Amino acid sequence: MRKLLEFVIRFHFTIMFLLLQTVALVVMLRDDEAKRETVLSSANAVSGYFYENFNFITEYFSLRAKNDALAEENTRYRNTYLRSYREKVPSVESVRDSLLTQKYYYLSARVINNSVNSPHNYLTLDKGRLDGIQPDMGVVSATGIVGVVRAVSDHYASVISVLNQKLRVSAKIKKNGYYGSLYWQGQSHTLATLMEIPNHVEIAVGDTIVTSGYSVIFPEGETIGVISDFRQDAGDSFFEIDVELSTNFKNLSYVYVVGNLHREEQIELEEGTENGQ
Amino acid sequence: MASELLKHTLLFWAWLLVQVLVLNNVAVGGVVPQIYLLYLLTLPFETPKWLLLALGFGLGLSIDLFTDSVGVHTSACLWMALARPLVLDLVGSREGYETGTLPRMRDYGLVWFLRYAGTLTLVHHLVLYLFLEFSFAALGKVLSNTLLGGFLSMSLMVVLQLFAPSVKPRKKGRLI
């Protein structure tokens, strides 16, 4: 016993190092991208507080650009506004459309922390659980998709960015509907890769890539980007497509968090079908 | 003693916030300079080894919490804290370290600081990028990021050290 004690005292530095390193490794390896502990993410109250207050200052440096972007977005919505359209047959009274029910709803949020330099990038939003944000909601900007909510605290949310090698997004080619999975290879913050498109499909540089709507996260047809290049390895029957992302990740300020009212229903059904085979 | 504790707590927070709020938004070639290492580098010579590890763990974990990179900076700081006593011995100045001085450029000169901080920064960055990529397949990227990051961090640290305040007035009239 005394020998053990002597050993511990003599090598306390090494032992302590090994212990702490083990703790760090265990936390790192157990870290589940889908369900991260809120305490271990940037959505925790302390970092949220500092990011929010610092953002309050830095925001002023880019007010003009942000105003321009918002004005542009407003113009786009005004153009689709019902009052902007004149009825072609004036005598017909318009009726309230009862055929459509709402499936998706949008919440606005502000980005208070953002990175593009790591292989695994995350954003922090200034809204959280109390504002109605839940894990696995999609996040989009005025120009394209941004990421998926991963952890929430009462007032903040941590979002896994499209610029994160651990995220896969179901995407399709807008003009013909062929779908594949889109992920980031870590090269540049403007480029992602679309895989699993068979090589008999006709594609061209400039084709638009949108979300497929097959997952419960993003609505169908949210813009992702345009094809900037594509390759085909010899003997491979799939294209490897470079997609230029339409969202400017270096300049994100306001985003929309997408909620899906049919989410539970769809998941329940899909899981039931899988288990019932 | 209490004022030392207060000073170091403030320093801890200052470096942490400077790193996560300012420097993490600065990247050259996709690599972020890690200036917060200066906190661990300039802790007094007499700091007990276990405290080095504890502070390294705490600071690394705090950075991780801000940047959503659980365990990565923590591990890098732990390795750095492990190596610090060893490196201090290796690059030891000929007369040994005087009491009342700190391991920094102002007290021991540029060349000494480059050897001391350079070695530890490389240790930190190597572990950092290895854990960040978490694959040996990306070894080329790990090494290039380590070197570029090490260069950036060191440059910034040297510049900042030029403005370091003196803790105690230095002895004057030393015979050469």
Give your account of this protein's structure.
The complex is a heterodimer of chains A (277) and B (176). By secondary structure, chain A is an alpha+beta fold. In chain A, 26% of the residues lie in helices and 30% in strands. Chain A has five helices and twelve strands. Chain A has a six-stranded antiparallel beta barrel with strand order 1-2-5-4-3-12. A six-stranded antiparallel barrel of chain A has the order 6-7-8-11-10-9. Chain A starts with a helix and ends with a helix. Residues 90-94 of chain A have low confidence and may be disordered. Chain B has 176 residues and is mainly alpha-helical. Chain B has a domain at 43-161. Helices cover 66% and strands 0% of the residues of chain B. Chain B has helices at 2-22, 37-41, 49-67, 72-90, 105-133, 139-161. The longest helix of chain B is centred in the C-terminal third of the chain and has 29 residues, at 105-133. Chain B is globular. The interface between A and B is medium-sized, with 32 and 33 residues.
Note the main attributes of this structure.
heterodimer, A: 277 residues, alpha+beta, Thrombin, subunit H, six-stranded antiparallel beta barrel, 12 strands, globular, B: 176 residues, mainly alpha, 6 helices, 66% helix, disordered C terminus
Give a quick rundown of the structure.
With 277 residues, chain A is an alpha+beta fold.
Please specify the SSE layout and strand pairing.
The complex is a heterodimer of chains A (277) and B (176).
Chain A: H1 2-10, H2 12-30, H3 45-58, H4 63-80, E1 104-114, E2 120-125, E3 138-140, E4 145-152, E5 157-164, E6 169-173, E7 179-183, E8 191-198, E9 208-211, E10 223-231, E11 238-245, E12 254-260, H5 263-275
Antiparallel strand pairs in A: 1-2, 1-12, 2-5, 3-4, 3-12, 4-5, 6-7, 6-9, 7-8, 8-11, 9-10, 10-11
Chain B: H1 2-22, H2 37-41, H3 49-67, H4 72-90, H5 105-133, H6 139-161
